């Protein structure tokens, strides 16, 4: 009897690269295993996977999280600017 498999997605985006890959994985696959299966490390040279946070549908998760059907693994880059400070700068009147 064949092991149950299901579809998940791995996605990453930066200014220069967009990566989205659908994969068939066996039940019990973790985020870490899916990242290895996706080939993102080879397809996006210079990407330090260990340094990036991961999540499923915008909720941060640990890499040993077991996946469920239709999960989308997202790789999160560090923020360049604090969103609260950016909003404050946009709202405050320009000083002259």
Number of domains: 1
- List unreliable stretches of 5+ residues: none
The third-level CATH topology is: Ubiquitin-like (UB roll)
> Architecture, according to CATH?
Roll
C-alpha end-to-end distance: 74 Å
Rg, Å, rounded: 17 Å
Helix content: 10-25%
> How would you characterize the largest beta sheet?
5 strands, mixed
Question: Which band does the percent of strand residues land in?
Answer: 25-35%
The strands making up the biggest β-sheet line up spatially as 2-1-5-3-4
Estimate the global geometry from the Cα principal axes.
elongated
CATH superfamily: Beta-grasp domain
On the 0 to 100 scale, the average pLDDT is 88
Organism: Duganella guangzhouensis
InterPro entries: Mopterin_synth/thiamin_S_b, RnfH, RnfH_sf
Protein name: UPF0125 protein GJ699_08330
Family: Belongs to the UPF0125 (RnfH) family.
Reconstruct the topology from this structure.
Layout lengths: L4 E9 L4 E9 L4 H8 L1 H4 L9 E4 L2 E3 L10 E5 L6 H9 L5
Parallel strand pairs: 1-5
Antiparallel strand pairs: 1-2, 3-4, 3-5
